[in-house]
Design goal:
The complex is a heterodimer of chains A (368) and B (290).
Chain A (H helix, E strand, L loop, with lengths): L1 E10 L2 E11 L4 E5 L6 H9 L6 E6 L2 E2 L10 E4 L11 H12 L3 H14 L15 H15 L3 E5 L7 H18 L2 E6 L2 H7 L2 E6 L2 E7 H6 L4 H6 L6 E8 L2 E4 L4 E3 L10 E7 L4 E2 L8 E12 L3 E8 L2 E8 L9 E6 L5 E3 L11 H11 L1
Helix pairs in contact in A: 2-3, 2-4, 3-4
Chain B lengths: L8 H27 L1 E4 L3 E4 L3 H7 L2 H31 L5 H15 L2 H11 L6 H8 L10 H29 L3 H10 L3 H29 L3 H6 L11 H11 L3 H29 L6
Antiparallel strand pairs in B: 1-2
The chains are: A alpha+beta (368), B mainly alpha (290).
Chain lengths: 368, 290
């Protein structure tokens, strides 16, 4: 188990990582999710020992490793750039961590052949990495990480520089490969969809802080606060100011909801509601849905889905709706929103949805 | 494939052709012209055929000068390339130190050849030069005017001082372009300092090193000004390189024919050697060229 206890890193006047505490269990896949500059790479460097924390303690299986240099830790790391030794063959590249460790020839050969097969590199073992495609180069780097058989494997946006098809392919393979190894995997990404596809646990990062850590699906469904919900939403979470008055949610700009039962106990006052782009629809899906008149500002069509960019009062929203639609820009359209699906945040950005998680989850499962 | 040739396109290329013709082709043809004729003072020319080429290729003087050139270039490359890499590896990668180092390194490169020659001529003098005087007072018998070995040491030192910076700057540019992730990966692998150099830095520097070696070879092989200023080709003929000899023949003795023939042979040797270097060095890293 890797345990981070109050890890902080300050460089000059900049706080890169602020008071991070995490417990990562063996045999788990842990996603660090956050936008660029949110501190994913900084946190990984601290886990790897490439940087030293300004404050805090790092323990691995109960042993304090805070000041231990990376080569003395049991880790492997794969980077966003394709990092291989340029003059060595693919075989030698994959074998290099074991050679440093001083394994015998037979053990090395078995491990390399095995990893190459897993990464579909067997035909390319005698080439040098620069004669491979980008995807093959990254698979070579991944194979190096696999043969090292380390207790902690750090993957820093490993698929970010690959083209779409290769990314899909490798992303599907990675969890399977890693599930067999029984080590701790940490995977940094900027894409919420990647986190959801990988599963496991997710820690959302914002400005060097972990805003929430838990099972990926739980963090996605029940974000603890507005920042987490925004981090874990692509296209961005739709939000608008709301005032609760007795039994109604009064929305800025003029429409009301009847308060869903699981929000019944929250105090009257000002809140922010958030909802996912796919929660808006063109047809009334359920009885309590409210009809909202919004103005189309832009259209994006993917082929099977349409992203409709909307303006409602001062808010800018995105609706993700199945099928191809062709609305004119500036057209007024009627969209529907089910209040059961709303995320509600108080004035400090804390979710009040979690006050009644079971009710919220029921509402979500019932309609999704 | 059927193409429509547009003859007007030639007009676009014409200015370039004219420029190249005036800067390279016409002067070169003049030399070719001189090399196959016997020239007399009042513009009288007599056909000589390949006579001058034969004369040059059969003269000991030419082969000795060529030998000196090869030895000199060999020594220069053997010192400047490793030294340049070593300095580049030890230069700071960030902070104020970078600017300071880069300016210091560029300084020798900004000084004209003849000034460098003059500086070292004075620097090495036993009576007033700092180097010469210091060596003499240490009891070392150093005199570049009388001792061929000392003359060579002086010329080599001077070239190393003048041009190692170029190798340093090229290597440094190659080094800073290596993404940090390579070093992090090596650190995590527990690679030694030597392995980092051998398997990351050297392969990544290969292309700039090729340029450095080519430039330093061509320049050192054509060296003229510095030895001309410091030693004048002496003592004896000990520092008479091809270029110095060439000038002696052309301007000193006014033997235009042999001088032109020698120029062409000299030119072909530089061309050939550069090609050899290029081919060998690109083949060395076969497969790393993308």
């Amino acid at each position: 188990m890797l345990e981070l206890d109050g890890i902080t890193r300050v460089v000059g006047a900049h706080i890169h990582i602020s008071d991070v505490s995490l417990k990562l269990e063996r045999g788990t896949l842990n996603v660090l999710l956050g936008p660029t500059l949110s501190g994913k790479t900084s946190l990984m460097r601290l886990m790897a020992g490439l940087d030293k924390p300004t404050h805090g303690r790092l323990t691995f299986d109960g042993v304090d490793v805070t000041g231990v240099p990376p080569q003395k830790r049991d880790i492997a790391m794969v980077f966003q750039q394709f990092i291989n030794y340029p003059t060595m063959t693919v075989y030698e590249n994959i074998a290099s961590p074991m050679r440093v460790a001083g394994a015998d020839r037979k053990t090395i050969d078995d491990a390399v052949q095995n990893a190459a097969e897993l990464m579909k590199l067997t035909p390319y073992l005698q080439r040098t990495p620069l004669n491979l495609s980008g995807g093959q180069q990254q698979r070579c780097a991944l194979a190096r990480a696999i043969v090292k058989n380390a207790g902690l494997v750090l993957l820093d946006e490993p698929l970010a520089n690959l083209d779409y098809k290769l990314r899909e392919e490798l992303r599907a393979e990675l969890p399977r490969i890693f599930a067999e190894a029984g080590t701790i995997f940490v995977y940094a990404t900027t894409e919420p969809s990647e986190a959801l596809l990988l599963g496991g646990n997710t820690a959302t990062l914002s400005e060097g802080r972990i805003t929430q850590f838990g099972k990926t699906i739980d963090v996605f469904r029940q974000p603890r606060d507005l920042i987490t919900a925004q981090t874990f939403s692509d296209p961005p979470l739709n939000t608008i100011a709301m005032r609760k008055m007795g039994t109604s949610f009064q929305i800025e700009g003029g429409f009301d909801f009847t308060v869903p039962p699981h929000f019944g106990s929250i105090a009257d006052g000002a809140y922010v509601i958030g909802f996912q782009p796919h929660h808006l629809s063109l047809t009334r899906a359920s009885a309590p849905s409210a009809a909202i008149k919004a103005t189309v500002t832009a259209m994006e069509i993917t082929g099977s889905e349409s992203f409709v960019h909307l303006r409602y009062a001062d808010a800018r929203w995105v609706m993700l709706t199945p099928g191809v639609h062709d609305f004119d820009v500036d057209a007024q359209i009627e969209v529907f929103l089910d209040p059961q699906l709303l995320l509600v945040f108080d004035s400090q950005g804390r979710s009040v949805t979690n006050a009644h998680p079971s009710a919220a989850q029921e509402a979500l499962h019932g309609t999704n | 494939m059927d193409r429509n040739w547009n003859n007007k396109a030639w007009f676009l290329v014409l200015p370039m052709l004219v420029l190249v013709a005036f800067s390279a082709i016409i002067p070169l043809m003049t030399v070719v012209n001189y090399s196959v004729q016997d020239t007399f003072g009042n513009n009288q020319f007599f056909w000589a055929g390949l006579e001058w080429f034969e004369e040059v290729l059969h003269s000991n003087r030419f082969w000795q000068a060529l030998g000196r050139n090869l030895i000199f270039s060999g020594i220069i490359l053997a010192i400047e390339v490793p030294l340049g890499i070593l300095i580049a590896l030890n230069m700071p990668k960030k902070g104020v130190g970078v600017a300071v180092c880069l300016v210091l390194m560029s300084l020798p490169l900004l000084i004209p050849w003849n000034v460098v020659g003059t500086i070292w001529q004075v620097f090495g003098r036993v009576d007033i030069g700092l180097l010469g005087y210091a060596l003499a007072s240490l009891g070392i018998d150093y005199n570049y005017v009388q001792d061929p070995f000392d003359a060579w040491v002086t010329v080599v030192l001077m070239d190393v001082w003048h041009w190692t910076s170029l190798v340093v700057l090229l290597c440094y540019a190659g080094l800073v372009s290596i993404p940090d992730a390579y070093y992090q990966a090596a650190k995590i692998d527990g690679a030694s300092r030597w392995s980092v150099f051998r398997f990351i830095q050297l392969p990544k520097m290969q292309r700039v090193l090729l340029i450095a070696v080519l430039l330093r070879f061509m320049d050192s092989f054509m060296i003229y000004t510095e030895p001309f200023v410091v030693t004048g080709g002496g003592p004896g003929n000990s520092t008479t390189f091809l270029s110095i000899d060439l000038v002696k023949i052309a301007i000193g003795q006014f033997d235009l024919g042999p001088a032109a023939a020698m120029s062409l042979i000299y030119f072909l040797i530089v061309l050939l050697m550069s090609w050899v270097f290029y081919t060998v060095m690109t083949n060395l890293g076969q497969g790393d060229q993308r």
